[in-house]
Protein: MULE transposase domain-containing protein
Organism: Brachionus calyciflorus
Amino acid sequence: MWDMIEQRNPVWHFDASGLFLNEINDQSKPLLFSIVCHDPISKSFIPIADFFTPANDSLIIQLNLIRIQSTFLRYKKSSVIKKSLDINNPSVIVTDFSWASINALLRTFLNCDIIQYLKMSFEKAIKFNNSYDKILKTKIYLCSTHFLKNVIDDFDTRTKRMKISKKVRHCFIICFTLLQNSKTINEFNDNLWHFYTIFSEKYLSDKCMVSLLKMEININIRNVSWIKDLFQDNERNNYIRDSPFTKYFCELIEGFQDINKIHIETNPRNDFFYPNLMDIIKKRLHLAPLWSAFIISSESINFPHKTNLSRFTNNPVETWFSYFRNHILNINKRVKLVRRLNPSEIVTPYYNYLQMKFNQHYKNI
C-alpha cells in the first residue's frame, strides 16, 4: 500500500503516545510510537509501523526505526534494491519537537546528526548549493500545529504580567505562521523583516504601516479560523552555537536594526510595539529549516496532489492513535473488565483493518 501512497503523498507522520499502557514499576511509562501515512485520494490513514517501548531515548527509537526500514527492504525485489536502497523512504517525515525523535530519524534515514542536517540545509537554502540533494532525500519537519502551540505558550508565559491586548496576540500568531509558511528563504527573510518592524518600531512609520498592511493582506487571503482552537523548552546551547543559521539571522536582524534606527516621534504610537517579543522568534531561528517551509517546498515535484506544500501537521497519526485506542485495543472495555490484553487481540483487528483498507482502495490498482 505504501508503494501506491508514496506516488500520491510521500509523507510519514511519526509520533508517540503514552495513553495506551499503564506505568510499569521501576520503569518509565511505556510509549506507543507510530508511523502513519495519509492517502489524499482514498482519504485513508494507513499505519506503516508501530512499536512499544518504555525507553524514550534516541538510541532505542533509532534501533526500532532501523528494524522497520530493514523490514521494508526485505520485501523489495532484489533487482529494485540494487538500484535504490531508499526507494521506500518518504520525502518528508513530520514529527513533534522531541530531540530523541529528531535525532533518531536523522540517523536512520539520513545518517547524520542535527548539526550536519542544519549545515546541509544552510548550503541548500542560503547558498543554493544542490550538491547535497542526494543525501537530503528525506526532509524532517516539525508538526506545524504543535510547534505553533509551543510558540504561543512561550508568548503567554512572557506576557502573563503585561497588559497586552488580544489584537497584539493575534497579530503575533499570524506573523509567526507567515514565517512557518514561507516557501523560500527570501520570502522568510521578508516576513522576518515585517515581523521585526511591526513589533520593534515604536511609532507608526511608513515602514511599519507597510508591514502591517502586508500582514492584513495575508489574513484576508488565508483561512485562519483554526487559530482560535490553539491555546518546555528543549533548546540546547550547542545547537544554537553550531547552527549556521544562527549567524545568518543575527546579521540579518542587525541589518534591520540599522534600518530602523531613525524614529519620527510625530508619528502615532505603534500599538504593536513590544520589542521583547522578537526574542521568542530569535531563540528558534537556528532551527528554521525544521519548522519553516523553505526546505520542504523543494519537494513539490513529489506531491502531484498537493498544490500548497507549506504546512504539515501530525493530525494523521493522532487520528490513528484514537482509532487504535478505541477500536483495536477497545481500551474502555478492557478497563471495565480489568484484564490484560493478549497480543493476538491486537494483531488480529490490526490485520483486519489493513486488509479492509487494501480491499477497498488498493486491490485493483
